[in-house]
């Protein structure tokens, strides 16, 4: 099937309000959409519209950390305790044994604060509508994680944990003396002229034209109503998931990253050194490097990038190892949990050698 046919099916068969995809290759750009940007209006989804990118934020965060490592501002072997003294302590945790590399590779063993029972009640249940404007500090998110025992000893396993990148964002702030938002803006957004990209922080509304985002509040019924959750306090995402962007900006970013325009060769190679995710673990079938994942498509092409989920949205951003071809896709509904069949199907159509 073509990408257009796949997107049409996502709307008509899976009930997503709308879907977009963009493919960059050889200086050429293709954009397609299906469905709507806002239910009840018929407004189509457009290439310039902004949406929340969720965990694709992690790749931006890792890029900044690796830039700082290249500049000898910090080392990937620095302990968390060095930069955030006293924060990761208690309940069997020891920040002196967790290094920055563990954070970026999800090998710290730190419990994912987003899986805490109270956080799941707030953001993954029908109670979401009463909590989507809750405001958090990074310190509060880390403290939630530390109420749980570690999943394993640092460096002895893999567990995808948003706590890792909250800590990475805090280290960026401590190492630079600037806010996370300002550092990302200075080091990535401005150099690449990503006009539709920014770290939302405490902003609950969008700065520009945007898609509306919808949630079924994790109710399993396919006929469950879709609630508009466009306005949202994304502080629970911070450096792990708070970015807003567009398909064009994301494609530009990943093409520049994989193409060697954002990191020196040594740091890019480290980012792209992949370890297979253990069987039975979240992202089973993928490999993970430093803030970047990879997997092989049915067509035989291995792609590198990241997926992202945040209330009301699912997104995927992947490209070839050299960044010569990049594809990004988004649905403005957060059910499907996640659409791990839908997005690879789009990527397979985009990266098939026949194309």
TrEMBL record:
Q: Gene3D superfamilies this protein is in?
A: DD-peptidase/beta-lactamase superfamily
Give the keywords, sorted.
Carboxypeptidase, Hydrolase, Protease
All copies of domain Beta-lactamase-related, residue ranges = 4-330
Q: RNA-binding: is it a keyword of this entry?
A: no
> What GO molecular function terms would the record report?
carboxypeptidase activity
* UniProt-listed InterPro entries: AmpC-like, Beta-lactam-related, Beta-lactam/transpept-like
Pfam families xref list: Beta-lactamase
Name recorded for this polypeptide: D-alanyl-D-alanine carboxypeptidase
Organism of origin: Streptomyces alanosinicus
């Amino acid at each position: 099937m073509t990408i257009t046919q796949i997107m049409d099916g996502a709307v008509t068969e899976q009930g997503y309000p709308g879907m977009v995809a963009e493919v960059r290759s050889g200086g050429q750009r293709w954009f397609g959409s299906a469905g709507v940007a806002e239910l009840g209006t018929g407004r189509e989804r457009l290439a310039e519209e902004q949406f929340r990118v969720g965990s694709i934020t992690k790749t931006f965060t890792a890029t900044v950390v690796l830039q700082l490592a290249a500049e000898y501002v910090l080392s990937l072997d620095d302990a968390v305790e060095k930069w955030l003294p006293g924060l990761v302590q208690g309940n069997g945790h020891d920040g002196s044994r967790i290094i920055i590399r563990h954070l970026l590779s999800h090998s710290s063993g730190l419990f994912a604060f987003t899986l805490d029972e109270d956080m799941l009640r707030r953001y993954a249940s029908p109670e979401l509508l009463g909590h989507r404007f809750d405001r958090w500090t990074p310190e509060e998110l880390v403290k939630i994680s530390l109420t749980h025992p570690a999943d394993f000893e640092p460096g002895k396993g893999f567990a995808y944990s948003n706590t890792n990148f909250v800590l990475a964002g805090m280290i960026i702030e401590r190492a630079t003396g600037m806010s996370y938002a300002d550092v990302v803006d200075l080091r990535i957004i401005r150099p690449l002229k990503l006009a539709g990209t920014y770290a939302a922080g405490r902003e609950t509304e969008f700065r520009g034209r945007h898609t509306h985002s919808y949630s079924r509040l994790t109710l399993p019924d396919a006929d469950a109503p879709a609630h508009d959750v466009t306005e949202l306090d994304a502080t629970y995402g911070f450096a792990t998931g708070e970015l807003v962007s567009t398909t064009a900006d994301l494609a530009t970013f990943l093409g520049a990253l994989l193409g060697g325009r954002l990191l020196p060769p040594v740091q890019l190679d480290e980012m792209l050194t992949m370890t297979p995710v253990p069987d039975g673990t979240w992202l089973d079938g993928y490999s993970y490097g430093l803030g970047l994942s990879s997997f092989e498509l049915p067509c035989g092409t291995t792609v590198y990038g990241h997926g992202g989920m945040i209330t009301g949205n699912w997104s995927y951003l992947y490209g070839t190892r050299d960044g010569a071809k990049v594809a990004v896709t988004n649905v403005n509904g957060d059910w499907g949990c996640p659409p791990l069949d839908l997005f690879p199907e789009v990527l397979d159509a985009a990266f098939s050698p026949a194309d």
